[in-house]
Amino acid sequence: MLDRRHFLKFASLTAIGLTISQAKAFSLSDAEWRKRLTPDQYEILRRAGTERAFTSPLLEEHRKGVFGCAGCGRDLFSSETKFDSGTGWPSFWRPLPGAVVQSADRSLGMSRNAISCSRCAGHLGHVFNDGPRPTGLRYCMNGIALTFRSA
User: Fold this and answer.
1) Using CA atoms, how far apart are residues 32 and 130, in angstroms rounded to an integer?
2) From 69, 72, 117, 140, active-site residue
3) Residue 60, CA distances (Å) to 21, 55, 106, 151 in order
């Protein structure tokens, strides 16, 4: 018989195993990433680059749907959380559960919070504390790092 403690331990280990297996599914070599992505996508997703403001076609994408990772296809943001931040990059006030991870970015003499895909670790953009309610967050994403699938 499985008691609560053993059940929770089993569930946790299963979740960790699934996360590791997903990460391994997109643990590609540099050469494989270069084949899979366009040069611009590679620069942003694998080298933490930034696209020029106001250049992404996804900036003007207003249909209902889901924005995903251009590297691995993982769903990242619902169109319901997209808003016009006026910054020139597609912006969202909340990612889908478990879709992204946050890390410190101290490049360019600044201290920011970088956002990456939780499946393939592709760099997506940054998150700032100047977004709208209900979260007050602005996930400022590189459109080149995203795909869009209409609902």
Assistant:
1) 37
2) 140
3) 35, 10, 30, 16
**Could you confirm whether 120 is annotated as catalytic?**
no
- At residue 113, the 3 state secondary structure works out as strand
Structure confidence by residue, pLDDT tens digits, 61-118: 999 999 999 999 999 999 999 999 999 999 999 999 999 999 998 887 888 999 999 9
Is pTM, for the whole model, over 0.85?
A: no
**And the tokens for 67?**
């924005």
Residue 27: which residues within 8 A CB-CB, separation 6 or more? none
- According to the model, what pLDDT value does residue 142 have? 98
Distance CA 91, CA 87 (A): 8
All structural domains of the chain = 28-150 (2.170.150.20)
**DSSP one-letter code for 92:** E
